[in-house]
TrEMBL record:
Pfam families in the cross-refs: MMR_HSR1
Ranges where the G domain occurs: 141-205
Identification of the protein by name: Mitochondrial GTPase 1
Family: Belongs to the TRAFAC class YlqF/YawG GTPase family. MTG1 subfamily.
The UniProt record lists the keyword 4Fe-4S: no
Ligand binding (GTP): 71-74, 149-154, 202
Membrane-related topology note: Peripheral membrane protein
GO molecular function terms noted in the UniProt entry: GTP binding; GTPase activity
């Protein structure tokens, strides 16, 4: 899983395609970046290492203050956060352009640490430009960048609500990747100091390091499911859970005990959902066969993960110290 063969990178990069803005979108973001006072890079806390586009970010950090934000912290065990901060900071310390400040872990939908974003950003801007005598500003424009579906627009809405009390959505949010289609108008999120946030489409293509990392990103909804394939994602998720002894899918899927293989899981799930697919027989008889809909079962299994039904699960868990688990699962309930 970890070693990419020739051609694999091309397949993987198709999973994160131009619908998110592609080269045009990236160029648009880069053009706008030169006018920004700061960049907030947003990631999904379940994959704190898998989704970074290192080259782009290093170039960026040389020119602008940059805050690294991990959103959706509600989806990972709270005890892993201090370790993740340390792991990310250590990995970045060898970069020619190390991180500005410490990464912030927050949740837009649960309103966790959203109130820290504006003060942290203003502090970073002041530190970055402190030797620049021309830099005396009363207002700041900040762009939010990141891979698709990590919650960039949700963060803008949440910051705006925290700072102004306005609860209507200033920018559209959705569970599919590619909701924000172009660099949008600036949205004022704070009056004192005057701060404008600029939303952007999820144009940062992750650098594909391995199939494993690409599949983790896909499980978090940053790719187009139909291009990756639900059964491939389900196979990865099942293997991930099985190797860690996570069996919390049983309640959600109506199993009274863990299953041994993916086919068993998908067949059991399709039977539980009573989902069958009618397919034409190509044997000249003109008849039809009815089979269990395993594709739908795979989607259902993945959806359970995305909705947090199996508990809080950190996917990039390899670097945690031994004895610290990357998952926290609900108590097993008796199946009726
Ligand atoms: N669990 C959880 N879900 C979140 C959080 N923030 C956002 N989401 C969900 O993540 C999905 C994507 O949110 P968006 O704000 O549209 O993400 P985006 O990065 O702007 O996406 P694109 O514009 O498509 O690139 C939505 O279903 C949100 O409800 C969070 O803190 N926790
Ligand atoms: Mg968006």
């Amino acid at each position: 899983m970890n070693v990419l063969r020739k051609g694999d990178t091309a397949i993987i990069s198709r999973w994160f395609p131009s619908v998110h803005g592609g080269a045009g979108g990236m160029a648009e973001v880069q053009r706008k970046l030169t006018k920004m006072d700061c960049i907030i890079e947003v990631h999904d806390a379940r994959v704190p290492l898998s989704g970074r586009n290192q080259k782009f970010l290093e170039r960026l950090r040389a020119a602008r203050p940059h805050l690294l934000v991990y959103n959706k912290v509600d989806t990972i065990p709270r005890k892993t956060v201090p370790y993740l901060k340390k792991i990310v900071t250590e990995k970045e310390s060898s970069s020619p352009f190390p991180l500005h400040g410490t990464p912030l872990f927050c949740s837009a939908t649960k309103n966790k640490r959203i109130d820290k974003i504006v003060p942290k950003t203003v502090k970073l801007i002041h530190e970055f430009f402190k030797h620049n005598a021309d830099f005396a500003k009363l207002e700041y424009t900040i762009m939010i960048v990141g891979v698709p579906n990590v919650g960039k627009s949700s963060i803008i809405n949440a910051v705006r609500e925290t700072c102004t009390g306005l609860t209507n959505m200033a920018t559209r949010v959705g569970a599919q990747p590619g909701i924000t289609r172009s660099v949008l108008q600036t949205i004022r999120v704070s009056q004192h100091p005057k701060i404008y946030l600029v939303d952007s489409p999820g144009v940062l293509e992750p650098t594909p390091v391995s199939y494993e990392r690409a599949l983790r990103l896909a499980l978090c909804g940053t790719a187009i499911d139909s291009l990756v394939g639900n059964e491939l994602m389900a196979a990865y998720l099942f293997n991930f859970m099985q190797t860690r002894g996570i069996t919390s899918y049983c309640n959600y899927m109506g199993f009274d005990k863990p299953v041994d293989s993916l086919p068993e899981l998908l067949r059991g799930c399709a039977s539980m959902l009573q989902s069958r697919r009618k397919t034409r027989n190509f044997d000249g008889t003109g008849g039809y066969s009815v089979k269990l809909d395993l594709e739908l079962a795979a989607k259902f299994f993945i959806m359970g993960f995305r909705r947090g039904e199996y508990g809080k699960i950190l996917l990039d868990d390899e670097d945690l110290p031994s004895g610290v688990q990357g998952w926290e699962v609900p108590e097993a309930k008796d199946v009726e």
